[in-house]
Each structure stands twice: as C-alpha cells, then as structure tokens.
Design brief:
70 residues; alpha/beta; 3 helices; 20% strand; globular
C-alpha cells in the first residue's frame, strides 16, 4: 500500500528476504511467510538473499524482526 501511495507503481514486486532463493530455505517463520505471500493476491516474486537487495528484483522486501534489526 505504501509503495502504491508514494509512486506510480500500481503492482509492486514483493520479495521475502531469506538465506536462499528456494522456498524450502529459511526458518519456520520465513517458510510460513513464503506460503502465505505465495497464496495471496499480491505480486509475490519469491525469496531473495540479502546480496540481491539492490539488484532490482523487487520493489518491497519483507523480513523478520531479526533480519530487519540487522
């Protein structure tokens, strides 16, 4: 909603930060988030690793509290 409000991007790409691109990697919380985001109607593009944050793979990055604090 925020990206839509501040830009002309009406369909932002949403990615989940994980320790691998594969959906089976990450903590149980990250795996559950992957399943939830994947079954939603948003433009979910899958997992990205931290090194991919600036590679224009996604417009919005979702992470857990630990990763967010780092």
């Amino acid at each position: 909603a925020y990206v839509k409000a501040i830009s002309s991007n009406s369909n932002p790409r949403i990615a989940l930060i994980s320790n691998g691109h594969e959906p089976y990697k990450g903590s149980s919380a990250v795996k559950k988030a992957y399943d939830y985001l994947g079954s939603s109607t948003i433009n979910f593009v899958g997992n990205v690793e931290a090194r991919d944050m600036f590679d224009d793979r996604a417009d919005v990055l979702v992470c857990d509290g630990f990763v967010g604090n780092i």
